[in-house]
C-alpha cells in the first residue's frame, strides 16, 4: 500500500515521538524533552516550520520537517529540509522519495528558489537516494 502524505497534526504527537526518538538515536543526538515539545508545537503551528508525515493504514511511518527563509543571494526564499526519517522497517519502499517530492511541491508552491539539506557522511543508503533527487554540492558545513 502506498503511504498517504499529509501535514502533521496535533493528534500525531505520540506516533511522531516514536519516529522522532528513532531519528535522534540514528543521528546520535539525544534531545531534552522540552526541545522536542517546542519542535512539535512549531511544526503544528506552521508559522516557522512545516511538518509532513507519511501514514500507512493509520500508522505514521515517516516525516519531513522543513522551514523557509530569505536569502541574500535571491529575491526568492529557500526551503531547508531540516529533518527526514522513515521507520527502519519501511525503508526502501519509496516513502523517503515521496516525502522529498512533497517537500519540492511545497517549495514550488511557495516560490522557493532552492531546496537544500545535509546528511551525515556515513548515511550511505540515504545519500544514494539523494543522489537521484538533487545535486551534491561542494560546500562544507562548519558549526560553533
Automatic annotation (TrEMBL):
UniProt feature coiled coil, ranges: none
Entries under CDD domains matching the protein: NAT_SF
Every N-acetyltransferase domain range: 3-144
Pfam families: Acetyltransf_1
Keyword list, A-Z: Acyltransferase, Transferase
Domain of life, source organism: Bacteria
Stored InterPro entries: Acyl_CoA_acyltransferase, Bact_Acetyltransf, GNAT_dom
Example GO molecular function: acyltransferase activity, transferring groups other than amino-acyl groups
Descriptive protein name: GNAT family N-acetyltransferase
Organism: Tahibacter soli
